[in-house]
Every structure is written in structure tokens, then in C-alpha cells.
Specification:
1373 residues; mainly beta; 104 strands; 32% strand; elongated; FAS1_domain; hyaluronic acid binding; transmembrane helix; transmembrane
């Protein structure tokens, strides 16, 4: 914290000391602007003001004697007197106490900006934390934060923003004769009581007198002694007499001896005498007019002009810049109207009669007329972490948000574990081992739990060197890591074991109020949270039970062959299968190295059913076995265990994909475990390294549902490398590998043939193929199954580009050739031989027997009976009459023959229809139709794969169509595309608009693209004030519109989700759809799905949800330090503005010539660039100052007024401006212009020293420039009249004086020790000779010091540069 201390010679009580201190701001002299106010240590209600009077800087009424005494806590300025505490503010302070969210007690509480922590007893609380989908409960602390809301109020008797005193005496506003309109918004006007009048209610109304102004004057023809001090007596006019001047004088008893302006009066004894009439004075015989203005300015204010009217009377007229009745004249305060023309974010301070200055409020920069918000984020990232995005706007508090891949509160952001280990001295040793071995397992997305042995534990272990030499150190380090879970200390207390990344389990136990690992290592520091997991520090090193040992070679440890590793680790059976299938050569082929192998243990293979074992080892199934084994191999990749769960595609040699998932963290027995293919297989051993890659032991044989469908093959193409110099290490092209050979070749350089070398290279091309009996891009089984495609009764159109249709052999029919054509029977679909009088028992299950009609017999019903049998009663129409009066129902009918009903064939095995088919029956004819989502003839039904329709299932061309069920699919946009799958567009990451043309900001402005910095890319969630899910679609659009936003589209929400926006509450989206984004898996949010949980388009728009809105944030432009403007336009200092306008080329050239020719010229140039300057420059354009015309240095400095910044509107007629050379410039208007008119007309012309002002108000950061028609010529210096001889005489005297002074100084310093002295700088002004200035903020009426001549230098800047006097033990004040 930096402070400013004003240091008077004597201080009394503590409050006075506090009144002299400004906190949290280091104010140097150049920072103290005229009219500026700052809050002191006493609080907001006790402010000090800074004022410039006649070149001297004051704080309130105290002059500054010396400045800029630097200390380690701030800066000190010396004052000539003690500051009197001004109690003119009576601000109302309201304190609001808020309770913030529950956090870890170890964390330093962060109260919101603008609040402070309430330092009292901490309140304990319970909070839950969801870390990568795992919920944990913690005991934390709930801080209380205090926010003080200050309502500005003036004390009684004070008014305006600066709380100036009302008219009247101190403590007696309006002299007690009226009510002052006081308060912050008051005008300071006095509303007088009955009988009183005047600006400060200081007089009676006309015709009243007495202390209460309640008595009427009775004078009829005379002047009454009226007013507060009057007694009501009358002085009669000429020709009248009497107590009330009511009697007319008709007889002159004085015999015409009285003056013409006198009356002849009678005494009580009848004696006549002469008395001067009202308004005249004398002895009666001689009377003169009374000059009412002669004494004490006629009772008028000293700020008023007394004007005589009738004899003995006068009027008082306040001087220019003042207002009032003349008796009391108040300085006109321009700040009371429209804030004095200052910016709304500036304070207007009255500095004199009708004069004011504008100073931007704290947090804003500019000249006061225009104030620009100071974006805190542009300096030191606004106090946020370097890994956070700072967002600060004028309408909102500054916020800090950690960038993607970092976590924290924004002020402190933590990266992944690998990054954070380096920041703690207790974990740096562990980090150094990871780095030395290039282990970056814990640098991934996680989550991880890492048990880090302390630096002391690692330094104290003597075996580490041996572990490194033997190559087992990576296994030991990985044994301290747990993947798939971020476990907190409380989690570890409730579980018994976890599986490490190395593969071996770690036992956990809770004993003696501490957590122990493997009953030995104690957790000494816990719950160090990072972006991808949690770190716990332990006091001992953990050692796994099983470690793979490596033989030593000439260059260290070596990796053994796959067969040797299999023999040592218990994978002999699978190794033999690989060898028998001929896959060992594939694994050892350099084109496929390195490989990742998942091999079942010998115990897992022995546990297979006998039939499956016989199948695997049967020679006739070798081709099938090869595909099974390829399903366990991934080529050209050595995948670490930490990367397996996050690998999106693990394509095997067989062509199908493997999937690896973490164990269920809610199941304490599987934390850290890895499972393959929907958790059917568990990885039981990890990181088995061999000379061709890495292997993982699994507890089962992988059996994919489509296993055998893919028979991908590889084509090896020979490619020649580029021909280069043999000593240039010839390389193979990208995506190829060297075969090991080198060939001679010739290449050309500058037309010459040069002998060189090229590598023999080869490239593996993956060719997608389906095995025999499979078809399509997903290699589905042909109808009838891959073993018997088309039931071996036809040929399947198989292969990767096949359709899967069966072309049946003669006599067969059906989708899978499972049926016989009509008139055929048996498994071979032989033709039936029945003639037209018989019905054949046909079909695939038929016997071929003939059922003869009544009257026919024979094997094929070829014989007609002579006497047809007769049955009585008659047989059913669905029966035939047989001999012996017997009725027999026809096939597929049942009954006694008299009555025959059709058998319900659909009840028996679904009528022979497929299980996914619907069976319907008409008579005895069965009709099979596949259910929705399936296709086929009903006897055979296959699920429809909508993705195989040739149109990508209706998904976008840049989307992946995945079958999720019969005739169901999902569409997902490919990488680098965004959308819902039906519509995918190229992902366009937000572009920092500041990179293009500085975001349309001025070249001298700093640009900040708030939209680019937004962590959610413009998307935000909005909920009704009435609660969750209360918005219809129309209300949702209105809600977004009220926030200056639109309802977000699906793509906009997708961009936010990819920026890790996670919000588990559904909301409306554009297009009448509903969804919400998830950035990490959570069982309670989207069932662990990561992406956009899409509820689809809603038909009922009256449904109520929340809403996601989208708003593009603006580009924030802020002029750089030293420039002024709104960011889109920025002006530099006076010199920079001159240089930016071509019309000033000639004048600028003269200024530069002047600066190069003299010290004063350099000082003048430096003055133009000094940011503390507040000057007005009159610059001639090139038409007025010709190229061949020259100006003297004195002429140039005459163009600059260093008194203040005077805008065109301030240049009123008769205004004079002090210049650098001490002379004044005169402002006049065009001829015929009435000087009393204060408004500017369009056709008027203003002149400075007779030169017309052509253009005006070219604003600079330290002043303003007005363009004039011709250059100004400085008045000539007075000529010297001293003679030549006199000059020689004084020169001799000067030389003698110098010699005498040198001698005196030599002997004086020779006798004394040299000591430190405090020397005044050029700006340390002796104020004792200066008059005391009037109090500007609280002006005292009827008094003002006479103005002193203005200085010829800028009191806010030093002649060279700002000086800091360093304080020390020898400083003397």
C-alpha cells in the first residue's frame, strides 16, 4: 500500500493526524491538480482539496513548503500550517454485512470487490465439492464481508457537491433570517422570512425597519431610517416638515436665509432655523449633496460597485463573476449548473468567481471535460493471476476468471499437477525425478490423485540411485499416482484401496486421526487442488509389490523380446497363439512398431469354456483366430495407462475400435481401475515393456460383437526418399519409415549434377475390408450369419462396399434364403409332385406329402375313386370325406371334420416369423412383417442401419453417423467442426479483434477485446426472478432482449461448451429447442455425457425452462498513458498534436530550430511534452507563417499561455492570458460586437492580440491548441541605458566579490566537518511572503485577497524532471 502524508510542523490530536494522510495513493506534486479532492484517513466525509493560488500550491488553506520526500511507505509533503478539520460533510454511512459461500478454512477468504472481511469469529460450515464428477463433503469456513454504502450529504448550512457554506455568517446561515436551500443538491439560495430581503437575508424589505423588520416606516415626504439597524426616523424632503414629514412648509420663517436644498423648521419655542433636506448635508444655509458611496463603498460589498443615484442614495452592483444584491455578493459557482461543463465522471471545483476546474474522479482519466474509465485490467492484469482473464467495465466490478485448464478464484489460478509440483519446495524433488525421466503422465486432463513423498523423504532414501540404474524408477513414481479420480482426504478415510497408474493397489487406512498408505506412509499435507487432480504429501516412499526387471546391456537397461516377457509374466498361452497365427512377425515389423498389446493372462485363457478353447486352438479356425488376436493389438502407438481412458479411437489391427473406461468412482472397490469394452475386461497388469512396445495384462479374452466382421489389411508401398548429400543424413518423407537401405543418386545444384544418397522408405496404407460373410462400412453380418451367409442357399453381396443382399439358389426364397418357393419342400426345397387334386405339405419344414381332395387317392392324388365316399352329416368345407363316413380336416385346420377351424399358427413360434416381426394370419396363410426399425421378409429381420443409406443417415457431410439402435442414429460433427450433427460448420475460434486494425481503436490506444476474453464466448445463463424453469419461449426471448442479448443458438452454445462452459440446468435455445452444456462427466448431470444435452425442438412453446442468451461484448479502447480521448480518438501532448497536423509544419520547424539552438528552447520543447502542463497554445497555420519567415525564441514562447487550459468558450471578450515570457495576451471580439453578450454567435470572430482565431479546441493531453491566422510578435524588451564605463566598473566589483567569497568559503569549510544539509529544490517556494488565499471550497463572503501576478512557469512541473528527495537519518526539515 502506498500513502501520501502531508507534514505540518506541529500536530495535535489523533484525528488531526489522520486528516493529514491520504491512503492507497502515492501523490507526487505533479499529481496534485488544481481543484482536486482526496479522501483522508478520517474517511470519505473528511476530504482535502488542492488549489493553485498565484503560483503557490495549497492544501485547503495551508501552503506546501517542500514536496516529494520519498519513503518506503509512500511520499511526504511539508505544509506551512496545520490543516483545520472541516466539518462541512455529514455523509450517511450504511454498513451491509453479507455472508459469502463456504470454502476451505485454509484458503484466504476473498470478499467481493468493494467489501472487506469482517474480522470476527469464523463461522464453520459444511460444503460439497464436485470434482470430475465425484462429490465430496468438507468442513469449511464462511466469511462475513462488510460493505459500506456512503450516501453523500452536506451538514446543515452547506450546499453543493463540495458542501460550500450557505450565505451568511459561519454557523448562522442566511444570518438567521431565512432558510438556506442546503444539501448536496441544494443551490445555496436563501428563502427569507417575512420582512427580510437580500442574498443572505441581511436587510429589511423596502419600508421596514427594526431588528425583526416588522415595523413600518411612516415618512410621507422624506427619507426613513429603515433597515435592521434603523429607528424609523424621517429626514424630510425640501418643502416638508413634521415628525413624519407630513406638513408642507408654506411660510418661510427664515426669511430666505436657508439653502435651496434646506427646509426652514421651527423649534418648540417658535424660533426658526435651517436644516438641510434628506440627501443633503451642511448647516442649512449651505447644503451639499451627500455622496452615499463615499464611505465604506456605500455599504456595498467589496466585490460590488457602488453607483450614486439620487442625492444620498446609491445602488450596489456586484462585479463580474459575482451575483447577489450588491450588499452581499457571492462568487458565481459554475459547478451548480450542468456540473460546470465537466464530464459526468469528473468533479467540478470552483476556484474563483465564475471559475472552475474539472478533475476526473478516481478511476477515470482525462482532462475533466472528457473522462475515460481506467480499465484496471490493463495494468498488471488487474491484480488477477497471470493465468486468469481479467474483465473490468465501467458498469461492473472487476472480475478474475481462471483461463481454461486452470482452476482457482481468479486471483490465484492453479495449473495441472505437473506444473504445480514445481511451486512447492516440498514437492520439487518429486518433480525433478519426473522431469529427469520425462514422465508426464500427470500432465493430462485427469483427474489424478498423486501421493508425493516429501523432499526430505526422497533425499533420505539411499536406494534411489540403484532404482534409476536398474530402470525401475518410473514404475515406483507411477505407483504414487492414481488415475481416473481426484480423491480428497475425506475420501481416503472411507475407502480401503485404490489402483495406482503403475497397476498395483495401494492400501489406505485411517488410524490415530491420520490416513496411512500401505500402513506405513502417513499423509502430512493434503487436498492440494490443481486443474487436473489432487496432491497429498506423504512422509515415506511407496514401493509396488510387482516390478518388471530389465536386463543390463552396454548402454544401460535393455528391453526383452515379447516372448521372453510373456514367459516371465505369465502370458505364455497368448504368446503361443500369436506365434501360431503368424502375428509375431507383424508385431516385430518396424513398420508397425511400437505396438500396444492387450493380452489375456494364462489364468484367463484357462478359465474359458472348453468349446471356446477348442475353437481357438483348432487349426481349421486359424483365419478366425487371427482376427480375434488382431483385436488385441494396436499398431504404431505406445499408449500409456494415463492416456487410455481419454483416447477417443483405439483402432486395432483387426479394424474394430477398442474402448477403455475408468472404474466406477462410486464403487470404492474399483477406484483407479481400467476396463475394456463396456467393463467386460479389466486391466490387471500395466506397463509391461518389451522391445517392440508395451503390453497390458487383462483378465478375459476380448469378444467384440462385430468381431470377425473387420478384416482390414495393410498395403506396404516402397517410396524413395529425397536425394541429398550423403553427409546430410537423408530422411524419409512424412508418414513413411526407413527400410534400412541407402541408394546412390544424383541431384542438381546450379545446373551441376552432384552425387548423393537417398533412403529406401516404405509406407503402410490401411485398407478397410470386411471378412467373408460381412458387408457394408460397419461390416455387418450377412443374412443367415457370417458362418452360413444366406443359409448356404445363396450368395451374399458381401465386402466393404457390398449391400448384404442374398441371391438365392434355385428353389429358395427369403431375405436370407431361409424359405422355399411355393410348390417346394424340405431343406433342399425340392419340387412337390402332387397333381392338381392334391395339396402339398410344402415349405422348408414340409414333408412333401399330398393331401387329396374328396374322391381322389394315390401318392400324388393321381387316382380317382369309382365311388366317392359319402359322409353324413356333411363334412366341413375345410375337411375332406374319407371312407367309413369319416371327415378329416385339411392341413392347418383342427376339429372333428364336421367343424374345422384354422389353427392359430402365430401362437406357435410366432408363426415361423422372426422375433422382431409381426405375425398376422388370414385363414391358414401366415403373413410376416418386420417391426418398425427392421427390414426383411418377416421370416428374417435385420435392424435397419440408417447410417448405411448412402446419404450418411441424413447427417451432415462433416458429421459422423453412428447407429444407436434399429433405424436410430446419432450425428456428431467431426473434429474442427461445430453443430448438432445435422448442420456442421467449420469451427471458428474467437478472433481477438484487437489484432486487426487495433480493434478500430486509435493507434495510440490500448485495445481489449472483451468478447475474446470472455470465458463463455458470449453465452450466459438467465433464470427468471421467480425461480427455476419459469420462462416460456416468448418470455425467454424477452428476457435475453432485456439484457441487450439474443437467445443463443445451438452452435453458440457449442462454442461455449468447447470453452469448458458447464451449466447443469436446461434452457431455451434459438429454433425453439432446449438443452444445456456439460464440460466434464457427472453422474448427476446428463448421466455423465459431455457435450450438449439436447432435448430437441419443443412442440409446446408454453413449456417453461430457463434460457441461454448470447451477447457480443464490445472492444474496450483506452488511450495509452500520456494520451487523452475516448479510445477511438486519442490526442497526445501539445508537441505530438502539432506534429500530427500538416498545417503546423512551419511553426513546428521554428519550434525545433529554437530547441536545438538554446537551453531555453529545449526547456520549451520539454514543457510541451510535460503531462502535468495545463497550457493554451496559439499556433499559426502554414498560410499565416510562411516557410521563409522566422520567429525568435521570445516570439515562440509568446504563443503559449501556461496559466491554464482555456477552451474557445472560455475566451471571453477582454480576457487576458499570462504567457511564458510574463506578458499577457488579450482576447477581443469582432468590431461592433457588444462586449456584454456572453454567448458565442456563429458569425463572430475572436482575436488574440489582433490575430483572428480560425480553428479552435484541438485538444491535447496537457492543454489545448487554437489555430490563428498569423504568428504573434512578442513585445520588445526594455533597452539598457547603462554606459560602457559603468559596465566595466561593475564587472571589476563582481570579480573582486567572487574572489572574496571563494576565500571565505575555503577557510570556513576547512575548519568545519562536512555534514548533510537539506537543500531546497527549485520548486520549494517560500510562502511566508505570500498572502493567505481565500478558502475556495468554503468561500467567505465580503472578503478576498488581492490577486497576485501570475508566474511565468508551470507550478506543477519542475524545470527538468520530477524530483524525489529520499529521506534518511540526516534529513532536516
Amino acid at each position: 500500500m502506498t500513502n501520501s502524508l502531508v507534514y505540518p510542523h506541529v500536530l495535535q490530536d489523533e484525528d488531526q493526524i489522520r486528516y493529514h494522510i491520504v491512503l492507497e495513493e502515492k501523490l507526487l506534486k505533479n499529481d496534485m491538480h488544481n481543484g482536486m479532492h482526496r479522501e483522508t484517513m478520517l474517511g470519505f466525509s473528511y476530504q482535502v482539496g488542492f488549489f493553485l493560488q498565484n503560483g503557490q500550491l495549497y492544501i485547503n488553506e495551508a501552503p506546501i513548503n517542500y514536496t516529494n520526500i520519498a519513503t518506503d511507505k509512500g511520499v511526504i509533503h511539508g505544509l506551512g500550517k496545520i490543516l483545520e478539520i472541516q466539518k462541512n460533510r455529514c455523509d450517511i454511512n450504511d454498513t451491509v454485512i453479507t455472508t459469502e459461500k463456504c470454502t476451505l478454512c485454509l484458503y484466504r477468504s476473498r470478499c467481493p470487490p468493494g467489501t472487506k472481511e469482517f474480522l470476527g469469529e469464523k463461522k464453520y460450515c459444511i460444503y460439497t465439492e464436485n470434482f470430475f464428477g465425484r462429490t465430496s463433503i468438507h468442513i469449511g469456513c464462511q466469511p462475513k464481508c462488510i460493505k459500506t454504502i456512503i450516501t453523500r450529504e452536506c451538514c446543515a448550512g452547506f450546499f453543493g457537491q463540495q458542501c460550500q457554506p450557505c450565505p451568511g455568517k459561519s454557523g448562522n446561515a442566511c444570518f438567521g433570517n431565512g432558510i438556506c436551500l442546503d444539501g448536496v443538491n441544494g443551490t445555496g439560495m436563501c428563502e427569507c422570512e417575512e420582512g427580510f430581503n437580500g442574498t443572505a437575508c441581511e436587510k429589511c424589505i423596502e419600508g421596514k425597519y427594526g431588528r425583526n423588520c416588522d415595523q413600518e416606516c411612516a415618512c410621507v415626504h422624506g427619507k426613513c431610517s429603515s433597515g435592521i439597524e434603523g429607528d424609523g426616523s424621517c429626514e424630510c424632503d425640501v418643502g416638508w416638515r413634521g415628525v413624519n414629514c407630513e406638513s408642507e412648509i408654506k411660510n418661510d420663517a427664515c426669511n430666505s436665509t436657508c439653502h435651496t436644498s434646506a427646509n426652514c423648521l421651527l423649534m418648540s419655542n417658535g424660533t426658526a432655523y435651517c436644516k438641510c433636506a434628506a440627501g443633503f448635508q451642511g448647516n442649512g444655509t449651505h447644503c451639499t449633496v451627500i455622496d452615499a458611496c463615499e464611505t465604506s463603498n456605500g455599504g456595498c460589498s467589496i466585490k460590488a460597485e457602488c453607483k450614486r443615484t439620487t442625492p444620498g442614495n446609491r445602488v450596489c452592483v456586484c462585479a463580474a463573476g459575482y451575483t447577489g444584491d450588491g450588499i452581499v455578493c457571492l462568487e458565481i459557482n459554475p459547478c451548480l449548473e450542468n456540473n460546470g461543463g465537466c464530464d459526468r465522471n469528473a468533479e467540478c471545483t470552483q476556484t474563483g468567481p465564475n471559475q472552475a476546474v474539472c478533475n476526473c474522479l478516481k478511476g477515470y482519466s482525462g482532462d475533466g471535460k472528457t473522462c475515460t474509465y481506467i480499465n484496471l485490467c490493463l495494468s498488471n492484469n488487474g491484480g488477477c493471476s497471470e493465468f486468469a482473464t481479467c474483465n473490468d467495465t465501467e458498469l461492473t466490478e472487476r472480475t478474475c476468471t481462471c483461463k481454461p485448464d486452470f482452476v482457482g478464484d481468479g486471483f490465484k489460478c492453479r495449473g495441472n499437477i505437473y506444473q504445480e509440483l514445481l511451486k512447492d519446495s516440498n514437492t520439487t524433488r518429486f518433480y525433478s525425478h519426473l522431469k529427469a525421466l520425462a514422465l508426464k503422465d500427470i500432465a493430462g486432463s485427469g483427474p489424478f490423485t498423486v501421493f508425493v513423498p516429501s523432499t526430505e523423504a526422497l533425499n533420505g532414501e539411499p536406494k534411489i540411485k540403484d532404482w534409476i540404474v536398474n530402470g525401475v524408477m518410473p514404475q515406483i513414481l507411477r505407483y504414487h499416482m492414481v488415475g481416473c479420480a481426484g480423491l480428497f482426504y475425506n475420501d481416503l478415510k472411507t475407502i480401503t484401496n485404490v489402483t495406482s497408474l503403475q497397476g498395483d493397489p495401494i492400501q489406505t487406512s485411517f488410524s490415530q486421526n491420520s490416513v496411512y498408505l500401505n500402513t506405513k506412509a502417513k499423509i502430512i499435507s493434503s487436498d492440494i487442488i490443481s486443474a487436473n487432480g489432487v496432491v497429498h504429501i506423504i512422509d515415506k516412499i511407496l514401493l509396488p509389490q510387482h516390478m518388471q526387471e530389465f536386463p543390463k546391456g552396454e548402454s544401460g537397461t535393455e528391453r526383452e523380446s515379447l516372448k521372453m516377457v510373456a514367459a516371465k509374466q505369465g502370458y505364455i498361452m497368448f504368446s503361443n497363439l500369436l506365434e501360431n497365427a503368424g502375428l509375431m512377425s507383424v508385431i516385430s515389423d518396424p513398420l508397425h512398431k511400437p505396438v500396444t498389446l492387450f493380452w489375456p493372462t494364462d489364468a484367463a485363457l484357462r478359465a474359458l469354456p472348453k468349446e471356446q478353447q477348442d475353437f481357438l486352438f483348432k487349426k481349421s479356425n486359424k483365419d478366425k483366430l487371427v482376427q480375434y488376436l488382431k483385436f488385441h493389438i494396436i499398431r504404431d502407438a505406445k499408449i500409456l495407462a494415463c492416456d487410455l481412458p481419454n483416447s477417443k479411437s483405439l483402432k486395432t489391427l483387426q479394424g474394430s475400435d477398442l474402448s477403455v473406461k475408468c472404474g466406477d468412482n462410486n464403487d470404492n472397490s474399483s477406484i483407479g481401475d481400467l476396463f475394456l469394452n463396456d467393463r467386460r475386461c479389466r486391466i490387471v497388469q500395466r506397463y509391461l515393456e518389451f522391445d517392440g512396445g508395451i503390453a497390458y495384462g487383462i483378465d478375459c479374452m476380448l469378444m467384440d460383437p462385430t468381431l470377425g466382421g473387420r478384416c482390414d489389411s495393410f498395403i506396404t508401398a516402397d517410396i524413395k526418399g529425397d536425394c541429398v548429400g550423403c553427409y546430410s543424413n537423408p530422411k524419409c518423407p512424412t508418414a513413411t519409415k526407413p527400410k534400412g537401405g541407402m541408394q546412390k543418386c544424383t541431384y542438381q545444384i546450379y545446373g551441376r549434377n552432384i552425387d548423393g544418397c537417398r533412403q529406401d522408405c516404405s509406407m503402410v496404407v490401411w485398407v478397410a475390408k470386411c471378412c467373408r460373410g460381412y458387408y457394408g462400412r460397419d461390416c455387418q453380418a450377412c443374412p443367415g450369419g457370417p458362418e452360413t451367409p444366406c443359409n448356404n442357399h445363396g450368395s451374399c453381396n458381401d465386402g466393404y462396399s457390398g449391400t448384404g443382399e442374398c441371391k438365392c439358389n434355385n428353389g429358395f426364397n427369403g431375405t436370407s434364403c431361409e424359405l422355399c418357393l411355393p410348390g417346394r419342400y424340405g431343406s433342399d426345397c425340392k419340387p412337390c409332385n402332387c397333381n392338381s387334386h392334391g395339396q402339398c405339405d410344402e415349405g422348408h419344414a414340409g414333408s412333401g406329402e399330398c393331401f387329396c381332395e374328396t374322391g381322389w387317392t394315390g401318392r400324388v392324388c393321381e387316382t380317382k375313386l369309382v365311388l366317392p365316399p359319402v359322409c353324413s352329416p356333411n363334412c366341413s368345407s375345410n375337411a375332406v370325406c374319407k371312407e367309413n363316413n369319416m371327415c378329416q380336416c385339411k392341413p392347418f385346420y383342427e376339429g372333428d371334420g364336421i367343424t374345422c377351424t384354422a389353427v392359430n399358427l402365430c401362437k406357435q413360434n410366432n408363426g415361423g416369423c422372426h422375433q422382431n416381426s409381426k405375425c398376422t394370419q388370414t385363414g391358414v396363410k401366415v403373413l410376416c412383417s418386420c417391426q418398425k426399425g427392421y427390414t426383411g421378409d418377416g421370416r428374417t429381420c435385420f435392424p435397419i442401419n440408417p447410417c448405411a443409406d448412402g446419404l450418411n443417415g441424413g447427417c451432415h457431410e462433416h458429421a459422423i453417423c453412428t447407429m444407436t439402435g434399429p433405424d436410430k442414429r446419432k450425428c456428431e460433427c467431426k473434429n474442427n467442426y461445430v453443430g448438432d450433427g445435422l448442420d456442421c460448420t467449420v469451427m471458428q475460434l474467437p478472433i481477438d479483434r484487437c489484432l486487426q486494425d487495433n480493434g478500430q481503436c486509435h493507434a495510440d490506444a490500448d485495445c481489449a477485446d472483451l468478447h475474446f476474453q470472455d470465458a463463455t464466448v458470449g453465452v450466459f445463463h438467465w433464470r427468471s426472478p421467480q425461480g427455476q424453469y419459469k420462462l416460456t419461449f416468448e418470455k425467454a426471448k424477452e428476457a435475453c432482449d432485456s439484457q441487450g442479448a439474443t437467445i443463443a443458438t445451438y452452435n453458440q452454445l457449442s462454442y461455449a461448451q468447447k470453452a469448458r462452459y458447464h451449466f447443469c440446468a436446461a434452457g431455451w435455445l434459438d429454433g425453439e429447442r432446449v438443452g444445456y452444456p456439460t464440460a466434464f462427466p457427472s453422474p448427476n448431470c446428463g448421466s455423465g455425457f459431455v457435450g450438449i444435452v439436447d432435448y430437441g425442438v419443443r412442440n409446446n412453446l408454453s413449456e417453461t425452462w430457463d434460457v441461454f442468451c448470447f451477447r457480443i461484448k464490445d472492444v474496450n479502447c483506452t488511450c495509452k498513458p500520456g494520451y487523452i480521448g475516448n479510445g477511438f480518438t486519442c490526442s497526445g501532448n501539445l508537441l505530438q498534436v502539432l506534429m500530427s497536423f500538416p498545417m503546423f509544419t512551419n511553426f513546428l520547424s521554428e519550434v525545433l530550430v529554437y530547441s536545438n539552438s538554446s537551453t531555453k528552447g529545449r526547456e520549451f520543447l520539454k514543457y510541451l511534452t510535460n503531462l502535468s502542463t495545463r497550457a493554451t497554445l496559439f499556433a499559426p497555420n502554414n498560410n499565416g507563417l510562411r516557410e521563409n519567415e522566422t520567429l525568435s525564441g521570445r516570439d515562440i514562447e509568446y504563443h503559449l499561455s501556461n496559466a491554464s487550459t482555456m477552451f474557445y468558450g472560455d475566451l471571453t471578450n477582454g480576457t487576458t492570458l499570462q504567457t511564458r515570457i510574463g506578458k499577457r495576451l488579450l482576447i477581443t471580439y469582432s468590431v461592433g460586437q457588444d462586449y456584454q453578450i456572453q454567448t458565442t454567435k456563429k458569425n463572430e470572430t475572436r482575436y488574440v492580440d489582433g490575430k483572428s482565431i480560425l480553428e479552435w479546441d484541438l485538444i491535447a493531453s496537457n492543454g489545448v491548441i487554437h489555430v490563428i491566422s498569423e504568428p504573434l510578435k512578442a513585445p520588445l524588451l526594455p533597452a539598457s541605458h547603462a554606459g560602457f564605463g559603468t559596465g566595466i566598473f561593475f564587472a571589476i566589483i563582481l570579480v573582486i566579490g567572487i574572489v572574496a567569497f571563494v576565500g571565505y568559503a575555503y577557510f570556513r569549510f576547512k575548519k568545519k566537518n562536512i555534514g548533510f544539509r537539506y537543500f531546497k529544490s527549485k520548486e520549494d517556494i517560500d510562502v511566508t511572503a505570500l498572502d493567505k488565499p481565500s478558502n475556495i471550497t468554503n468561500p467567505t463572503y465580503e472578503s478576498s485577497a488581492a490577486p497576485l501576478p501570475e508566474p511565468t512557469y508551470d507550478p506543477f512541473s519542475d524545470s527538468d524532471e520530477q524530483q524525489l528527495v529520499m529521506s534518511g537519518p540526516h534529513d532536516q526539515f
